[in-house]
Automatic annotation (TrEMBL):
Stated name of the protein: Protocadherin beta-16
Membrane topology: Single-pass membrane protein
Pfam families in UniProt: Cadherin, Cadherin_2, Cadherin_C_2
Subcellular location per the Swiss-Prot or TrEMBL entry: Membrane
Signal peptide location: 1-28
Provenance organism: Ursus maritimus (Polar bear)
GO cellular component terms, semicolon-separated: plasma membrane
Gene responsible for this protein: PCDHB16
Organism lineage: Eukaryota, Metazoa, Chordata, Craniata, Vertebrata
Amino acid sequence: MEIGWMHYLRQRQVLVFFVLLSMSGVGAELEPYSVAEEMEIGSFVANLGKDLGLGLTELSTRGARIISQGNKEYLQLKVQTGDLLINEKLDREELCGSTDPCLLYFQLLMEKPLEVFQAELRVEDINDHSPVFTEREMILKIPENSPLGIAFPLSNALDLDVGSNNVQNYKISPNSHFRVLTRKLSDGRMYPELVLEEELDREEEPEIVLTLTALDGGSPPRYGTAQVRIEVVDSNDNAPEFGQPIYKVHIPENSPVGSLVVTVSASDSDSGIYGKISYTLFQPSEDISKTLEVNPVTGEIRLKKQVDFETVLSYEVDIKATDGGGLSGKCTLLLQVVDVNDNPPEVTMSALTSPIPENSPEIVVAVFSVSDPDSGDNGKTISSIQGDLPFLLKPSAKNFYTLVTERPLDREERAQYNITITVTDLGTPRLKTQHNLTVMVSDVNDNAPAFSQSSYTLRVRENNSPALHIGSVRATDRDAGANAQVTYSLLLPPHDPHLPLASLVSINADNGQLFALRALDYEALQAFEFGVRAADRGSPALSSQALVRVLVVDANDNAPFVLYPLQNGSAPCTELVPRAAEAGYLVTKVVAVDGDSGQNAWLSYQLLKATEPGLFGVWAHNGEVRTARLLSERDAVKHRLLVLVKDNGEPPLSASVTLHVLLVDGFSQPYLPLPDVAAAEARADPLTVYLVIALASVSSLFLVSVLVFVAVRLCRRSRAASGGGCSVPEGPFAGHLVDVSGTGTLSHSYQYEVCLRGGSGAGEFKFLKPIIPNLQLQSTGREVEENSPFRNSFGM
């Protein structure tokens, strides 16, 4: 019984009380339940569903479960029916020892929403143990002259049962000298005393053997026996006496083994062997026998093992002093264990939620309780977490705490939190316990993909190969998992919805790489724009857009094209130059264009070959052909010039044109070959001579007819308007007099003033300086248009 009582005190120190925790932190208790020990596994205890007023399925849907003290699962809950059943056979003596009532505390935890109900189960005792004497044979030495009525304490019997099932009575076998009395100790245990009712006579009966029987109060009662052997000795009329009946001692827990507790002392007035005293522990419990030892000679009581305040608060034991004659006396030792702060706080985690979704308001992350088996300030605790975390620790009743989020969490800011719960007691020195939690934050699709730049400019050289990788766009998403998987797609530009984007470029949906689907031509398409959309795979999906501008880089793939003089295989154009022309006289201008751009279209002109080198020159930048010196009579009449037109590309491309120049004395002189030349040609080829003469005649007649027609029309208009004698004809000249302007170096046009003198036998042209540019080259192709007609002035 002493063992059970101490075990009960220890349980009361370490028991953790769980309370019902709703989101408001208010707890509730269930009614107490009771069950007899040693019931079979699966035995019915109670129906928690009915007690809580819940439906059959509500316990299951709310995730109800039983939480017992420590790791023992004595009970199980059938969530389908709400029945509370025995999960293990309950041995009351093993669970509670001598503690009565024997209470087991458990909690009903429901997670959705979080609620905790506290309950207790009372384990009722059954009479399943018989009384047992620690000493199967007790020997008493009683002087023969002992007075009647003297009592001799005997060792008690131990019964692991409690209450009425414990030892209730003692009986002695029938005899003529002794009877037995049942006495009650301060802790409720029963012990026997042997009382002398008839004087002893050693000579008549030196030894008496009796049987002592201990009976419990069960139905039917159980019993145990021991033998009492009484030796009748000679007279010893003084029993030992202690100096004080009660010794009260305080000793700190965890004192080392062998520490002196107290020294008891008794005296005996007898002499000799009857005055020699020996000390023993009187009827010690098993726990006291393991904890204390007494020196039989000196009376020193020392520790056999360390004492623990959390296990046993105090010890009470009687000390017996016996003299050589068998007389004895006793005193009581009350040993109080003083608490020392030797137990750190304990953290019991009841519920933990991980991961928790980001962007959510206050969430219960963990539910835990704190206990400290020490007493006083040594058992008071303070709980805390790191101050730089977005979590709060909210205390509840009975050392119950909840860990909640202080604000919505952002996974992109931090995806994992390592939380250290620090629990410190208020003892000296202070002891602390740390419990580490790892809380993960789950991702929510709250971030759209973001491009590395809002617009991209890509350059592609024309004439590229199909499926050429021309560049990449990249967007990143701060989310995780499917929420961060980005896919790319093309968007038509809003300002050009008819752009054939699908035939120009394609994009890799996984990595954003852009490819040109066909060869691009700078002359047809110099630049185009489109949008790229990056979307994640979250639900709902988020997206963003970026603008991509593709610039087609020109390649030198177009050779210069000569617009004037035309090289179309027809009769060559001949330029007429008067022999009276001065140096620098403009003969003609070579007009060329290049379909490329930039330096690929910068044209330069060069005279490759001439009939008479040094007579003519070509300006490199504008293609003007001018005389390099004064003409003389010795210069040939016909000249053939080969002009090279070259662009500035790499490698450069070029074109050539052939010019025919005829030196004449004036425009009135018909274009006829010289007599000696004609004779030579006639001799060489008469047919050719005839053809040349015929063509020259027809051309001259046609030219004269046109000039006469124009002059007549102009004169009529002039007379009708003002009656003057000089008219200015309007209308275009022949094609070889038309000048062209365009891009690049072709920037000059010329108009020539011509006067016709009246009264002369043949018309005479007078070459004057250029006056007004009036022709343009259109930029949309390689077509040449004649602009407004030349305005010419004729003087009579």
